[in-house]
Structures are given as C-alpha cells and as structure tokens.
Amino acid sequence: MTLAPVTVEDTIEKQITVVADRLGNQPRSARRYFDAAAMADPLARNVRAEAVVKAAGSISRSVIG
Q: What's this model's pTM, rounded to 2 decimal places?
C-alpha cells in the first residue's frame, strides 16, 4: 500500500476538523497547533517502508518455505 503525503495530509486535516467540531472549537484555531504537511511526510514514509518490509517477508517465506 502506497500513500502520498498529500493524501495523509488531507486525512489529518479532516480529523482535526472532526475533533475540533466535537469539542466545540473552531477548526481554524485547532490547525494552528498542528502542521498537517509536516506530520504527513513521515507517516507516508512509514507506511511505504512497512509495505516494503511486508513484501520482503512474504518473498522470503515463499523462497524458504
């Protein structure tokens, strides 16, 4: 599974809005404390790295097994 940082950033923005709404806060105010773009890059990289590790594991199991 590959996720683009923009997709992750959009998801973070949506979740910030949902939580702010539930707490009765302005989403704009909540976004001041979170940099969705900065959070999205490492998360997207982690998802890609995890996919590579899982793929490598399945390959090694098929070769060894």
A: 0.60
